[in-house]
Model the fold of this input.
Amino acid sequence: MTTYLGLLRGINVGGANKVPMKALRALVEDLGHTNVRTYVQSGNVIFESPTSTPNKMVAEIEGAVSQSFAVKPSVVLRNRKQLEVVAAGNPFPTEGVKPSFLHVVFLSAPPSTKALQTLDHDRCPPDEFQVIGSEIYLLLPNGAGRSKLSIDYFEKKLGTRATARNWNTVIKVLGLMEKKES
Done:
């Protein structure tokens, strides 16, 4: 069994697109996954699955959420080992930096070299970003709400779906994933 993290974008934001976490856990269990748990209301679902086809799992979760809640979320999936790499690969310092200034944008697929060349590193100083594989690490010293380095910007420029989590959430869900597999 492999432990996965499903990151749902676009649910429970500002009172819209409501998906109760208890119902989301039940839905993921009904899809045949086990040890399902959620973290906060923003669409972080951890589960175990014998299935080794992430694209199939993504399509099933998106379809089931859409059918059950009339919400069309994007789902990005990472297994525990992938999330460990994400946590270890943060190019920005975490010591002395408020965790609320650090974010990770999870992409549904690695961007092409051509698409990466369209990104503007001077779009919103002093905000910084670095793309590593299928993740974009963000350092947003003025806060995420004021930054022009939005999920929509990256999706449009890179031609892939994305969702973001703050650094505290990344570390917390990794810890939850490791507890079961230890």
Remarks:
- Residues 54-69 form the longest helix (16 residues).
- The helical segments are 21-30, 54-69, 80-88, 113-116, 151-158, 167-181.
- The beta strands are 2-9, 34-39, 44-49, 74-79, 102-107, 128-132, 135-139, 162-166.
